[in-house]
Design a protein that fits this description.
about 100 residues, 4-stranded antiparallel sheet, 4 helices
């Protein structure tokens, strides 16, 4: 079984350049979690390319063995500062979790 966790964020920067900088900051904080959180099987980030302002700006796709793996990721000490960062730089968040 694989649990896929997808999160999209609407960044709160006032300009496209601001949101690009925020996306880069988020990417630099999130991508290392692929290596530091043992329960992460796959993790990628994707910057929105079309319809700036209408679409969400940044999407995370992460795979775990199961819900326990996602819970371990969510509470991992290296993930907690990322949560604080994302709360600071986002205006909205949506998530979906499903089994592949």
């Amino acid at each position: 079984m694989t649990l896929r966790h997808i999160v999209s964020w609407k960044l709160n920067g006032g300009t496209l350049a601001d949101r690009d900088a925020q996306a880069a900051e988020a990417t630099a904080a999130i991508l290392p979690l692929r290596e530091s959180v043992p329960s992460v099987r796959e993790l990628s980030l994707h910057r929105n390319e079309l319809f700036d302002g209408a679409n969400y700006d940044l999407t995370l796709i992460a795979d775990f063995d199961d819900a326990d793996g996602l819970a371990a990721y969510a509470s991992h000490p290296e993930h907690l500062p990322v949560i604080d960062l994302m709360k600071r730089i986002t205006a909205g968040r949506t998530a979906t979790d499903f089994t592949l």
